[in-house]
Design brief:
mainly beta; Immunoglobulin-like; 2 domains; five-stranded mixed beta sheet; four-stranded antiparallel beta sheet; 1 helix; 11 strands; about 50% strand
Length: about 130
């Protein structure tokens, strides 16, 4: 009798565990990871006094259906906008304008992009901007 009850309990646990994943079209199961990454340009070069546009994109897993707040931080160069809300129903990208002042010091500067979902852990990415003479 104990063996039958133990077997029934094992089958019940397997059925519940099977409900936590989705069947792959090719067989097997897929986990339902609800996560995202951020894609940024690897490197951008600006002349003093110039502006350029860059695109920041979210790469969503198939089950990630949340809004993401992007917060952009930089030093010695201007980035507009500094905060962007990308809704789950929208195209998963934002266009940023980066500007080097006419008197900006020459050199490499980092731009950090942090994405915070409605629930879950934030993630971030970084790219560099090289300011050169005109």
């Amino acid at each position: 009798m104990k063996t039958i009850i133990a077997g029934f309990m094992m089958l019940s646990l397997m059925a519940v565990a099977g409900c936590q994943s989705t069947m792959s079209p090719k067989g097997g199961t897929l986990s339902q990871k609800k996560e995202f990454t951020i894609s940024v340009p690897a490197h951008t070069t600006l002349k003093q006094g110039e502006s350029a546009f860059v695109t920041v994109a979210l790469n969503r897993s198939p089950y990630f259906k949340q809004d993401v707040q992007l917060d952009i931080k930089s030093e010695n160069i201007d980035v507009t906008p500094m905060n962007v809300l990308i809704k789950a129903s929208e195209l998963p990208e934002a266009r940023l304008q980066i500007t080097a002042a006419e008197d900006a010091a020459l050199g490499m500067y980092r731009v950090n992009v942090k994405g915070t979902p409605t629930t879950g852990k934030p993630t971030s990415a970084e790219f560099t901007v090289n300011v050169v003479t005109p």
